[in-house]
Design brief:
By secondary structure, the chain is mainly α. It has 25 helices and 7 strands. Strands 4-3-5 form a 3-stranded antiparallel sheet. Strands 1-2 form a two-stranded antiparallel sheet. A two-stranded antiparallel ribbon has the order 6-7.
C-alpha cells in the first residue's frame, strides 16, 4: 500500500503491451534485414517505422506521469526542471521549435536527432555538416518539425502551470540567436577590458576580436548600447601615443572596432561614440602597420553613412590617410584607397583631401604603377574640384594619363583617364597641344572614341572635337 500523502502512478497496461509488441516486431525486422542479403526496401522502411513508434511511445510514457506526484521534485532554484528530452542538446534549454535532422544510419535505419531550430541552424550556418551529437555526416540539411515533441512540451508546461515564453533564455535577432550564456560571456569580457592587469586586457581583447569576426551575434551585442563600444576603448584611450600601448592590444581593439562596424545597424552608433574617431585617427598616425591598416578599413566601413563621412572628414582623418598612402605599404594600400574614395564623395572632403596634397601623392603612385585602378578612380572623383585640376596641370598629369591609356587593358581605367583629360582641357586649353601630339603619334584618343565604353567614347569624341576646332581656328588665322 502506498504511504499517506503519496500518489502512486499506475503504469498503463495498454502502453506496456504495445511497447512489448513493437520490440518483438522490431527484433524480427532487424534480424530479417541482417540475415537477408537481398532484403526489400519495404522491410527497412517497416523497421524504421517501428523504431520511431517505439521511441514515441517511450517518450509519451515518460511524460505522462501525474503532475501532483512529481511537482515537489521538479523545482530547482525556483525554476521548473524540465525533462531532459525536452532540452536542446546544443543550448541545454527548453526547445520551443524542435526539429529533426537525419544524423546517419544504424543497421540501415535512419537515426534522427532533435534540436531547437535556431541552434541547429546556427550550427549548420557555421559550415558544419555533421550531427553535433553523433558526429555522423548529415545525409541532408533539411530540418523537419518534430510535432510530437512540441506537443509533449506544450502539454507538460500546461500540466505544471509553466508559461513557455517565460522559460526562453535567448532572443532572435536577424536570423541570429543570443543566449543568456552569450550575453554573460560578452559582459565578462567587457569587464576585463577595464582591468588593471595588462594580461587580462590582452586576453579579453583577443577574444572579442575573434568573436566579433566569427559570430555576428557579438556585433549585435555591441550595437545594443554605446557603452559597450566605450568599454573596449579603455585600454588604449588613456595613452597619448599608440607607441606606448602593447602592439597586440592596440591591434585587437582597433580590429574589433572594424568587426562591429561591419554590422549596418552599428555604423552610426560606433562613429558617434566619443573617442572612436579620434582614436582611429591616432591609430592611423602612430600604430603598428596592421593597426593603421585596420584603422583605415574601419573608417572606410563607417563612411558608408553620409553623416559619418562628414564626421570623419572634420576629425582630421584625411591627412594621415594620405600620409599612409604615400608610404605605400602593401598591407595598407587597398584599405586606404577605399577609405579615401568613399570619403571624397562629399564635396567638403574633396577640398580637404586636395589641401592635404592628395593629388600629388596619387600622381606619384600612378606614375610608379602602384594601385592604378583604385587611385585613378579617386583622381577622377577629385577632378570635379578646381584646385585639384590646377594641381594636375602643375604636376604634368597629362603625359602620365596618356601613357596609362596606351598601356592599360582595363576599360574603366581608360574611361577615368579620358574623363580627367577632358576636365583638364576645359580648364587649360594649352594642354590640347600635348594631346594633339599624342594623336599624331599613337591615335590614342581616336581609338578610344571608336572602341571604348559608351562614356569613354563621349569623352574622347569631345576632346577630338576640341582638337578639330583648334585646328580650324589656326587655319583661319
Amino acid at each position: 500500500m502506498a504511504k499517506s500523502g503519496v500518489v502512486a502512478v499506475e503504469p498503463d497496461p495498454t502502453a506496456a503491451t504495445k511497447m512489448s509488441e513493437l520490440k518483438k516486431e522490431l527484433n524480427r525486422l532487424v534480424n530479417s534485414i541482417v540475415d537477408d542479403d537481398d532484403c526489400s526496401v519495404q522491410t527497412i522502411d517497416q523497421a524504421n517505422e517501428a523504431l520511431s513508434a517505439l521511441k514515441d511511445l517511450k517518450l509519451r510514457r515518460r511524460s505522462s506521469s501525474s503532475p501532483s506526484s512529481q511537482s515537489s521534485s521538479l523545482k530547482l532554484n525556483g525554476n521548473s526542471a524540465f525533462p531532459e528530452e525536452f532540452k536542446c542538446p546544443l543550448s541545454k534549454e527548453l526547445m520551443r521549435d524542435p526539429v529533426i535532422v537525419a544524423s546517419g544510419k544504424f543497421l540501415f535505419i535512419s537515426i534522427m536527432q532533435t534540436y531547437d531550430r535556431p541552434f541547429i541552424q546556427k550550427w549548420l550556418k557555421a559550415g558544419n555538416r555533421t550531427c553535433p551529437q553523433t558526429q555522423q555526416v548529415l545525409s541532408h540539411t533539411v530540418l523537419t518539425p518534430n510535432h510530437l515533441i512540441r506537443e509533449m512540451i506544450e502539454q507538460w508546461c500546461k500540466n505544471h502551470g509553466v508559461e513557455l515564453s517565460n522559460q526562453l533564455h535567448y532572443v532572435y535577432n536577424e536570423e541570429e540567436i543570443i543566449t543568456k550564456a552569450d550575453r554573460d560571456h560578452f559582459h565578462s569580457l567587457l569587464e576585463k577590458m577595464s582591468s588593471s592587469s595588462l594580461s587580462e586586457q590582452k586576453a579579453a581583447a583577443k577574444q572579442l576580436r575573434l568573436l566579433t569576426k566569427k559570430m555576428p551575434l557579438y556585433r549585435t551585442l555591441f550595437g545594443e548600447t554605446s557603452q559597450a563600444t566605450s568599454e573596449i576603448l579603455k585600454p588604449i584611450s588613456a595613452s597619448d601615443s599608440f607607441n606606448n600601448i602593447h602592439p597586440d592590444l592596440q591591434e585587437d581593439v582597433i580590429t574589433t572596432l572594424l568587426n562591429i562596424s561591419i554590422h549596418d545597424n552599428n555604423k552610426k552608433l560606433v562613429a558617434e561614440t566619443p573617442l572612436v574617431i579620434s582614436l582611429l585617427v591616432k591609430a592611423l598616425k602612430s600604430g603598428t602597420i596592421e593597426t593603421r591598416s585596420n584603422s583605415a578599413a574601419t573608417l572606410f566601413t563607417l563612411s558608408a553613412l553620409d553623416s559619418n563621412k562628414e564626421l570623419i572628414g572634420k576629425s582630421g582623418a584625411l591627412k594621415p590617410l594620405i600620409d599612409l598612402l604615400e608610404e605605400g605599404h602593401p598591407l595598407a594600400m587597398k584599405d586606404v584607397a577605399s577609405a579615401l574614395f568613399t570619403l571624397c564623395v562629399v564635396h567638403e572632403n574633396k577640398a580637404r583631401a586636395v589641401r592635404e596634397g592628395a593629388v600629388g601623392v596619387i600622381l606619384r603612385k600612378i606614375s610608379s604603377r602602384v594601385y592604378v585602378d583604385e587611385l585613378l578612380a579617386i583622381l577622377a572623383l577629385l577632378s570635379s574640384h578646381q584646385k585639384a585640376v590646377q594641381d594636375m596641370v602643375d604636376l604634368a598629369a597629362v603625359p602620365n594619363l596618356l601613357s596609362i591609356m596606351r598601356e592599360s587593358n582595363c576599360e574603366r581605367n581608360k574611361e577615368n583617364c579620358i574623363a580627367i583629360l577632358q576636365t583638364i582641357c576645359q580648364y587649360d586649353r594649352a594642354k590640347l597641344k600635348e594631346i594633339k601630339e599624342e594623336e599624331i603619334t599613337f591615335k590614342t584618343i581616336t581609338d578610344l572614341a571608336l572602341n571604348g565604353t559608351s562614356r569613354a567614347k563621349r569623352k574622347a569624341s569631345g576632346i577630338l572635337e576640341r582638337l578639330n576646332r583648334a585646328v580650324n581656328i589656326t587655319h583661319t588665322a
